[in-house]
Specification:
The chain has a single domain, classed as ANL, C-terminal domain (GMP Synthetase, Chain A, domain 3, 2-Layer Sandwich). The relative contact order is 0.18. Helices cover about 30% and strands about 25% of the residues. It is an alpha+beta fold. The strands form 2 sheets. A 3-stranded antiparallel β-sheet has the order 1-2-3, with no helix packed on it. It has a 3-stranded mixed β-sheet with strand order 4-5-6, with helices on both faces. It has helices at about 25-35, 70-80, 105-124, and strands at about 10, 15-20, 20-25, 40-45, 55-60, 90-95. The N and C termini lie far apart (about 35 Å). It is built from 3 helices and 6 strands, in the order βββαββαβα.
Length: about 120
């Protein structure tokens, strides 16, 4: 293995190693929360069909709010984030999956992220 190259990728809700750059989920999440339609947001890194880790955003909309178009979410992120920080796909849901104590349910978040990536590939 090359010196300085990581032997494993992190697959968790804290961040995703992408093309040798660590994408900060806090920054992307903050940019998504700037949009009025977005009540809450979470960023997750999941392995795609090609074995690479992709950043996916899940956004929850407020009650009675029109769900934002994933294209609008992408455009907003692309305008304000570095290219490696822009999520590859977006899952728009009524509410994020959480435990009774309010923590994100990681397996459910990854399921949402994989589904969003699959939909994104099929639309392309």
């Amino acid at each position: 293995m090359e010196p300085g190259r990581r032997s494993a990728l992190r697959h968790n809700l804290a961040g995703a190693l992408l093309d040798h750059a660590l994408a900060s989920p806090r920054i992307a999440r903050g940019r998504l929360l700037e949009l009025d339609a977005v009540q809450s947001a979470a960023i997750v890194g999941v392995e795609d069909h090609d074995g690479l880790t992709r950043v996916v955003a899940a956004v929850a909309v407020g009650t009675g709010t029109e769900p934002p178009d994933p294209g609008r979410l992408h455009a907003h992120c692309a305008e304000h984030l570095a290219p490696h920080e822009v999520p590859r796909a977006f899952a728009v849901v009524a509410e994020l999956p959480t435990t009774p104590s309010g923590k994100l349910v990681a397996p459910e978040m990854r399921r949402l992220a994989r589904s969003a990536l699959k939909s994104n590939r099929e639309a392309a």
